[in-house]
Amino acid sequence: MRSARVALIWAALVAAIFVPVALAATSDLLAYRGPVYILAGFAGIVALGLVLVQPLLIGGYLPGLPGYRGRRAHYWIGGALVVAVAVHVGGLWITSPPDMIDALLFVSPTPFSPFGVIAMWAIFAVALLAAFRRRLGLAPRTWRLAHMSLAVVIVPGSVVHGLLIEGTMETMSKVALCALVLVAAIKVMVDRRVWRKRATS
Amino acid sequence: MTTVALNRRTLLAAGGSVLATGVLATGGSGLLLPARAQGVAPTQSMSGGANNYRKGAAIVDRIGKGGFWMSGTVRRAGDGAPLAGQRIQIWAHTTEGQEHEPQSHGATLTGKDGKFRLEMPQIVPVFGQPHGHLAYDSGEFKTVFLRPIMKSAKDKSLEAHFVLQSA
Questions:
Q1: Chain B residues inside the 8 Å CB shell of A96
Q2: At what angle do helices A171-191 and A140-164 cross, to 10 degrees?
Q3: B142, B164 in Cβ contact below 8 A?
Q4: Which whole number is the average pLDDT over A14-31?
Q5: Domain extents for chain B?
Q6: Probe site for chain A from B127, B131, B147, B150 (most A CB atoms < 10 A)
Q7: Closest Cα in chain B, distance from residue A113 (Å)
Q8: Which residues of A touch B52 (CB under 8 A)?
Q9: CB–CB of B48 and A112 under 8 A?
């Protein structure tokens, strides 16, 4: 029973991420895109998938990765998320520099751009804080507050960004992945009661 | 307080002179002030409209193999009179090429009724939205860049309308 449950959880996670990726791979739009643009698009989808993995790891919900191992994986997946976002933005910049520059300067006509750009900066900020928090001498409470505040920006930012885009992702699988991302983030915050003051507990 | 009063006075004086200039200029162009107030306002360039613009695209009968229609009108600001013989440049990400590629660009001229219509390949969504680009950039009037969005990516046509003001 236990191994069946373990297999089911992992299968569900793999499906939640790879079904949207696989359906995007069947999109008609790919025929009219260059390889760099295609890579940039898929990097964005993978990034959204990694945003789903992150709360699951930190909540210890994934079998085989509880506690410390989950936090280590969360740390490295965070690094992978930064790489995915960099490939996404870099690839789109190469594809159409003026459109990417408009997005980064918040003057883009597309309503989803600012959500993505804000989420990007929040992801980069978390990564920098995580990489240098010892050197910066951040107190655990300060780090926790900073990371949670930025997560609250990253999760809805990424979800709204993805939902508003008319691109290669198939609609139902995209909505499902976005819903899971939101639910996972809310669940870990509720379970770990992130708003409580640790020092007094 | 004195400063505020002075500022206000300066502002009123400046405003008055602008108003006077406006009335004089309007009188000079032979239009009455009431007509101008009710007139057709010039179209403003849209955000991102000029992206991947290429100067001087050739006037063509059709861009690529066609199958999609871009159409619209060109009128004069103020009286809204149709403007004939105006060159409108059109480009988009289509089934036959990306936005910046030369084969995705073409231009056409408005007819006597101020209307233009150019066949082009099917526009496909790019950067998250199915959209086209149009430019008026001939210099006689102020340059305008438009970026209309298709209601559905399956649409077979798209419209954009220009109201131009003197350069």
A1: 51-52, 98-100, 126-127
A2: 160
A3: yes
A4: 96
A5: 2-37, 68-164
A6: B127
A7: 9
A8: 96, 98-99
A9: no
Provide the β-strand partners of residue B146. B134
Query: pLDDT tens digits for B108-143?
Result: 999 999 999 999 999 999 999 999 999 999 999 999
Tell me the chain A residues in contact with residue B125 when contact means C-beta distances shorter than 8 Å. Answer: 29, 166-167
Average of pLDDT values for A24-29? 96
A131 CB-near residues (< 8 Å, 6+ apart): none
Tell me if B124 and A29 make a contact (CB, 8 A cut-off). yes
The nearest CA of chain B is from the CA of A99 a distance in Å of 7
Q: What is the ipTM of this complex?
A: 0.84
The distance of A156 to chain B (nearest Cα, Å) reads: 18
Q: Nearest-CA residue of chain B relative to A162? A: B128
Q: How far is B99 from chain A (nearest CA, A)?
A: 8
Structure tokens at B137: 């950039």
- Dihedral of the alpha carbons of B7, B12, B14, B17, in degrees to the nearest 10: -160
DSSP state string for chain A: -HHHHHHHHHHHHHHHHHHHHHHHTT-GGGGGS-HHHHHHHHHHHHHHHHHHHHHHHHTT-STT--HHHHHHHHHHHHHHHHHHHHHHHHHHHHH-HHHHHHHHTT--S-TTHHHHHHHHHHHHHHHHHHHHHHHHT--HHHHHHHHHHHHHHHHHHHHHHHHH--SSS-HHHHHHHHHHHHHHHHHHHHHTTTTS-GGG-
Architecture of domain B68-164 in this structure: Sandwich (2.60)
Q: Is the pLDDT of residue A120 over 90?
A: yes
List CB contacts (< 8 A) between A92 and chain B: 127
